[in-house]
Design a protein that fits this description.
By secondary structure, the protein is mainly alpha-helical. It contains four helices and no strands. Helix content is about 85%, strand content about 0%. The chain starts with 7 loop residues before the first helix and ends with a helix.
Length: about 110
């Protein structure tokens, strides 16, 4: 016995087309609203439907900022470690040279 039900794919396509037309109509209506009402609609959408997306965007922006800050701090630490390493090497070399030249008695320690 053949079924006389519409094809589910056809129903889905019709539903998507109707939904697209509804959103297109809403967009046209919104474009012609006064500026104050457009702001109210935008605020309502941001506070309701778009809230999870805005929160995700904010979290991603904070993560990017923290990542760049971490990189900057790591470069600064590396620079300071290099300076400290060079300073201790120079101090050791100065001690050896003073000992070799026996200048510690004449010049004094620094």
């Amino acid at each position: 016995m053949p079924t006389f039900m519409p094809d589910p794919e056809e129903q889905r396509a019709r539903r998507q087309g109707a939904l697209a037309l509804v959103f297109f109509g809403l967009a046209l209506v919104t474009v012609y609203l006064p500026a104050e009402q457009q702001r109210q609609v935008a605020a309502t959408l941001r506070a309701s439907v778009l809230r999870p997306f805005i929160a995700t965007q904010s979290a991603l922006a904070r993560a990017r900022l923290l990542t760049s800050e971490t990189g900057r701090l790591q470069r600064e630490v590396d620079s300071l470690v290099s300076a400290i390493t060079n300073r201790s090497a120079l101090a050791e070399e100065n001690r050896r040279l003073r000992a070799l030249l026996d200048l510690s008695r004449k010049v004094g320690r620094t």
